[in-house]
Design brief:
It is built from ten helices and 14 strands. It is α/β, with parallel strands linked by helices and about 290 residues long. It has one domain: TIM Barrel, CATH 3.20.20. Strands 1-8-9-7-6 form a five-stranded mixed β-sheet. Strands 5-4-3-13 form a four-stranded parallel β-sheet. Helix 6 links the parallel strand 6 and strand 7. Helix 8 packs parallel to helix 9. The longest helix is centred in the first third of the chain and has 24 residues. Bound molecules: zinc ion. The site of zinc ion has 6 residues, from loops. The site of zinc ion (ZN) has 6 residues, from loops.
Length: about 290
């Protein structure tokens, strides 16, 4: 089997009462995303300010929305942003949300040597642990870059799930002898960069109408509900955190949080649910 291919979890089912699940993984790239793009730092303050909108202006409103809807979320931070803007990371943790590992400077790990990849993974984990007191259990790939060794590396470093691959739309598992690693798949259809991403330095990208973007995501959410799947969008606070999108997200939560059998939760809870099923299967197998 390919080292990045996962398989379905035996006897997988959502918790009692739920037919599908949904979670929001916010990629808080901040300055790290601009640094990773290789743009000249001194002459691109407009790009940094656009990225910082997500951290300083949008993220507090996102936390308010999560509180209003009592919905836990996952926030993926490059460790550089954790060092630079620790207060907002602490605010996420204190509100009960999950911090997900997202590299140090938003590196595409497919372009790194194995040693560089491991060094950045370990160093960034320590930065998160030092600030929050909590070890991240999830990793999501900056720029959707993985190396052939990434999944093995995540397992060796004690991660419980990856959130970067696209073969499946239900949680799946990578088999390791001692403990499993789960895949909570993404989709480019559910990545807001496709709708709202812009590159200021190269004057590229475009803007979709909020109503068009949310029409697409609502259809996907309800479609995944029909098939028992996992709605796993990748949202950036500087994009979907814009006021129009944030109110559209509130409307989507209003419509789907109750009565449709959708478990709105975060990555940690989904991965822990997968672990409980997987462990129960192992216990049966051992008898
Ligand atoms: Zn990112």
């Amino acid at each position: 089997m390919h080292p990045l291919a996962s398989r379905p979890i035996d006897d997988f089912a959502w918790p009692e009462g739920f037919k599908s699940a949904a979670w929001l993984c916010w990629h808080v790239d901040g300055d790290a995303g601009v640094h990773a793009s290789g743009k000249p730092v001194d002459s691109n303050f407009a790009s940094f300010s656009e990225a910082r909108y997500g951290v300083t202006t949008a993220l507090p409103r996102i936390l308010e929305l999560c509180a209003e809807y009592q919905t836990p979320a996952s926030f993926a931070f490059p460790a550089f942003v954790v060092e630079q803007q620790p207060d907002i990371v602490i605010a996420c943790v204190e509100a009960g949300h999950e911090i997900v590992h997202h590299g140090y400077l938003h590196e595409d790990v497919s372009k790194l040597t194995p040693d560089e990849e491991e060094d950045i993974l370990g160093r960034s984990t320590e930065i998160i642990v030092k600030l929050t007191g909590q070890r991240p259990i999830g990793w999501t790939a900056p720029s959707w870059g993985l190396s052939l060794g990434t999944v093995d590396l995540l397992h060796r470093h004690g991660f419980l799930y990856d959130n970067s691959l696209m073969e499946h739309d239900v949680p799946t598992v990578f088999d390791f002898e001692d403990r499993p690693l789960f895949e909570l798949s993404i989709s480019t259809v559910l990545d807001d960069w496709q709708q709202f991403g812009v590159d200021l330095a190269n004057a590229s990208g475009g803007f979709a109408a909020v109503s068009a973007a949310f029409s697409l995501w609502r259809d996907e959410l309800l479609g995944l509900g029909h098939y028992g799947g996992l709605f796993s969008p990748t949202f950036h606070p500087n994009l979907v955190g814009r006021p129009g999108s944030l109110r559209a997200l509130a409307a989507l939560l209003d419509e789907t949080r109750e009565g449709k059998g959708i478990w709105w939760t975060n990555g940690r809870a989904i991965a822990e649910h997968c672990l409980a099923i997987h462990s129960a299967n192992e216990d049966v197998g051992d008898r």
